[in-house]
Amino acid sequence: MQHIVIIGGGFAGINLAKSLANNKDFSVTLVDRNNYNFFPPLLYQVATSYLETSSICYPFRRFLRGKKNVTFRMGEFKQLKPTENKVVLSNGELSYDHVVFAVGAETNFFGMENVRQNALPMKTVNDALELRNYFLQRMEQATRTTDPVERDKLLTIVIAGGGPTGVEVSGVLAEMKKKVIPKDYPELSGKGFESHIYLVDGGPKLLAPMSEKSQVDTLNALTKMGVEVKLNSQVKDYKDDIVTFANGDTVATKTLVWAAGVTGSVFEGIPQESYGRGRRLIVDEHNLVSGFSNVYAIGDTCLQSTDKAFPNGHPQVAQVAIQQGKLLAKNFAASVTGKPQKAFRYNDKGTMAIIGWNKAVADIPKPKLHFKGFIAWLMWLFIHLISLINYRNKIRTLYNWTSAYFTRDQTLRMIVRPDGEPPVKG
Amino acid sequence: MQHIVIIGGGFAGINLAKSLANNKDFSVTLVDRNNYNFFPPLLYQVATSYLETSSICYPFRRFLRGKKNVTFRMGEFKQLKPTENKVVLSNGELSYDHVVFAVGAETNFFGMENVRQNALPMKTVNDALELRNYFLQRMEQATRTTDPVERDKLLTIVIAGGGPTGVEVSGVLAEMKKKVIPKDYPELSGKGFESHIYLVDGGPKLLAPMSEKSQVDTLNALTKMGVEVKLNSQVKDYKDDIVTFANGDTVATKTLVWAAGVTGSVFEGIPQESYGRGRRLIVDEHNLVSGFSNVYAIGDTCLQSTDKAFPNGHPQVAQVAIQQGKLLAKNFAASVTGKPQKAFRYNDKGTMAIIGWNKAVADIPKPKLHFKGFIAWLMWLFIHLISLINYRNKIRTLYNWTSAYFTRDQTLRMIVRPDGEPPVKG
C-alpha cells in the first residue's frame, strides 16, 4: 500500500482525496492548516455579511467519514525533505511515497509593504471575517466622528482588482449603501458626507479573461449602481489613509480591499528551478513537479504548459483544480494497475461573475454563448448552490439567499471575534 | 424630552429600550460594547458546535430600526461623572438625564489567578467561540500525540459549576463523546486512553435553586450518560494541567471550563457603599441605585431586597432582567405623566435545564409542578425557541435543532478565528 500525502484541502486536494477514497492500493493523509474545507467563490458574501461562515465551510473530518483509507491531519507545511521522502509540518513529520502540493495561491502585494500592512486581502475565511468586522467597525466610527474629513474617509472604500472578487465585492457594497446603510445608520442622515465606492484595476478592462460583451455589461451595470470604476489605475502605495496611483492620483480612504492578484507560495525543499511564472510549480502533463519523481502539484499552485490550448498555463480557477485533482487520482490508480497515465486537458465549462441582484454575466465556450442579467444571475446561483460541498451547506445557503432576496437584507452584521475587543487596523 | 442612556443591551437593557421606543417624552441611547444582542441560554450550544453564532445573535441596529427615538452607540463604559450627568465611554462621552446600568454579571474566579489565566469562562459569545476552537484543537492534538499521558489530559474535561450551564455543557459533551468522536476521530480508536468528563461543584447539589426532584433527576441522567459528577468539590487551583480541589484531590486535564459563579462589575464613579452582596448595585423598589436620584440598575447587576418574596435579592436570571426592564420603562413614563410609580415584584414563571436529547427538567412554581424527560425537553425547546429575539433566529435555530435531532450531529466543527493561526491557551 502506498502512502500519498496531500498538502491542502481546497478544490484540488479534496477532489484528489475523494477520488482516492476506498482505493485499497493507497493510504492517504490530507493535510490542511484549517480543519475545514471552504468554498472561495462565496467568500465575498461572508465578508459582506450575506452568508454565515457555516454556509461555505465544512469540516474535513466530517467529509472524510466512511473514507477509511483517508486520514485528516491538521498542520501547516514547513519543509520538504525529498531525499528522506518526508514532509515537515508545524507539528510533526509525515513520510510519503507520493506528496501532492495543492495549497492554492496566496495574495500578491507586489512587494508593496505599505499595502501589505494596511490593505485587507480576501483569500481566506479569516480574511473575510476580518473584512466584515472591519467594514462594520468603520461604519460605527463614522456615526461617532464629528470631523467631516474623517467621516468621508471612513465611508469611502477602494477595491483594488477588477476580477470576479473585486466586481462582486463592489457590487454588494453598492447595494448595501442604498438599501441597508440608511436604515441601520440613521445618525448619518442629515450629516453631509461624501461616500464613494471605487473599483480600480491596473489594466484597461474589468473581468479581463471574459468576453468583451461581459466586460462591457459589467462596467455599465456597476457604474449604474454607483460604483466608480477606475481602469488603467495601478495602486502604488497606501499609507496614512491615502491610496496613491501610478499616475499620481490619490483617494483618501480608511479601507483598501486588496483583490489585485495572487502568487504561488515558496516551499522550502523545492529548488528555485522548479518554479515558473507567478511562482507556480512547473509540472509535466501528469502534474509531476519538474525535477522530482514523486512530488506533484495540482490546482492554482502549479503551472502546466503541456495542454495545447493553454501553452502559457491554465487560468487559476476552480474547474482546473477540480479536474486536475480527479485526473491525478486516476493516474495514481493507473500506475498501480500498469495502465497508461493520461495527460491533463482542461475542459473549460465557462466563466461567470455576479454583479448584483438579478445581474450577472456568463460566458460559455462551447457553443460560444454570452448571457447577462437575470438569466445569468439564475445560472450563477444554481451553479454555485450545487457546487457547495454538502447538502447542509446547500440548504443553509439557499435559505439565506432566499430570505436575502426578498428582504434585500441580512441579519448577520455582527462584529464577532473570539479573542475579545476587536482591534482596528490601518 | 429627557435623554436616557442605557448601558448594556442584554435582556434587561433591550427590554427597557424596546418599551421606551416611540415614546415622545424620551430620547434613548443604548450603549453596548458589542454591536449585537445575544441569547445567553444557548451559548453552550455555540460552544459545543450545535448552533452557529448567527442563531443566537442579532445586530442592535437592525433591532432598533423604526424605533426613531432610540440610538445605538457601540462603546464600553469607563466612568460615571454624576455631578455632570455624564458617562465616559471608551470612545467619547454622553450626557444624560437618567442613566441605567444593565450590564449583567461577569465571571467570578474568586480571586484564583491561575484559574483566571488557564480556565475557559462561558459568559460571552467570544467565550463560547474560544471554547469551541479550544475543544476542537485539543481533539486534533490528541490524534497527533504519541504520549499516552498527554492524550488522557487532552481528552479529559473538567466543568466547574453545577448550574444550568455546567449541566448543559457536560450533557452535550457526553453525547458528543458517544456519537461524534468515534466517527470523526478514527485515529483514536485502538489507542488506549482514559477520557473523562467531570462536572464538579463546591456545593452538595446540582442545579441548587431547583426542586430536589429536578436535582436528583439531573444527577441520575448525567451519571447514566457517563458524566462523572463530583459534588462538595471546590476547585482551589489550576496550573500545569492539574485541577486541585479543596480536599486535596486532583484531576489532570488540559481543559477546565469555568461556569462556577458570577460577580457584579465595578463602575468607576459609583461609591463603595452603593454595592451589596456579590458586588451588585443596591437599588430601591424602583431600581434607583442607592445614593443617586437619576442612576438606575436592572437585571443581574442590581440587588433589590424590597420584593417581599425575595428579601435577599432576586436570582440572577433572564426573567427578572426582562421584567425589571419593562417595569422601569413604565415607571419612566409614569414619572412624566405624574402617575404613581410601581414597585417591582418578580413573577417567577419557572426554571428549567436541559440535560441531553429528550432529557430535561422543569419546575413551575404556580401550580407547583415538576416535569422531566421528554416533556420537559419539549417545553425547554419551545420556550427557548420563542424567546429568541427575531423570526430569522427562530427559523435558523429550529432548522439546526431539527437536523441535529435526526442526525444526532452537526456540521459546525470549524476552528475559525479572524486573525489567523489559532493560539493555544493553557
Automatic annotation (TrEMBL), chains A, B:
Signal peptide segment: none
Record domain External alternative NADH-ubiquinone oxidoreductase-like C-terminal: where: 349-406
FAD/NAD(P)-binding domain ranges (all copies): 3-325
Catalytic activity: a quinone + NADH + H(+) = a quinol + NAD(+)
Keyword Oxidoreductase on entry: yes
Keyword Membrane on entry: yes
TM helices/strands, residue ranges: 374-391
Top EC group: oxidoreductase
E.C. designation(s): 1.6.5.9
InterPro entries linked: FAD/NAD-bd_sf, FAD/NAD-binding_dom, NDH-2, NDH2-like_C
Keyword terms: FAD, Flavoprotein, Membrane, NAD, Oxidoreductase, Transit peptide, Transmembrane, Transmembrane helix
Gene3D superfamilies the record matches: 3.50.50.100
Family from the record: Belongs to the NADH dehydrogenase family.
Protein name: NADH:ubiquinone reductase (non-electrogenic)
Biological source species: Terrimonas ginsenosidimutans
